Amino acid sequence: MSTFSFHANKAVTTGEGGSASTNDAELAATMRLLVNHGMTPEEPYVHRILGRKFRMTNLVAAVGVGQVQRWDDLVAARLRVSERYRELLPDACSGPACAPWARRSCWLHTIRVPRRTAVVDRLRGAGIDARPIWPALDRQPVLAHVSGNFPVAHAIAGAAMWLPTYGQLRDDKIQYIAEHVTAAVTDVGPGEALSHA
């Protein structure tokens, strides 16, 4: 099964929501039940399983279809922003690997910085919507029962942050953000060099 988020900050958006796809007929039937209160069209108001109301409206679907038709342009616009960050932040590493059969895309440009909280605070003080990435999954209360040692996940979750990455971000704004990232990293003190995650 593949899942897709259509949240407002995604390249293809319907404002909120998402979709799932599968080539497994049984799984597809279960998903259809789940999104429609556990009912089938053949037996309305008979709940075969405990479902929810996850149906997408036709209006929202039309917005999504319009976005999908612009896929190449939307992805290219975000890649332009990401590549510009790489140019303006020259101490960055080469970036994420991409399989030979795949094409790179960018949701949010991610960097790792020393003393991330201080860097994020400095950027927000300059009017830049920088955000720390999510905590490692085993640090989420719902997964508190998971045991194990995940040093890489913890290191990334503690140092990585997102920079504004929407397709219409103007070059002068990207320049402004990059300058403030460099200044913030310099000012907060010693640590690892800036790198793109």
TrEMBL record:
Transmembrane segments: none annotated. Keywords: Aminotransferase, Transferase. Coiled coil: none annotated. GO terms for molecular function: pyridoxal phosphate binding; transaminase activity. Pfam families: DegT_DnrJ_EryC1 (PF01041). Its cofactor is pyridoxal 5'-phosphate. GO terms for biological process: polysaccharide biosynthetic process. It comes from the Bacteria. The keyword RNA-binding does not apply. PANTHER family: DTDP-4-AMINO-4,6-DIDEOXYGALACTOSE TRANSAMINASE, TRANSAMINASE. This is DegT/DnrJ/EryC1/StrS aminotransferase family protein.
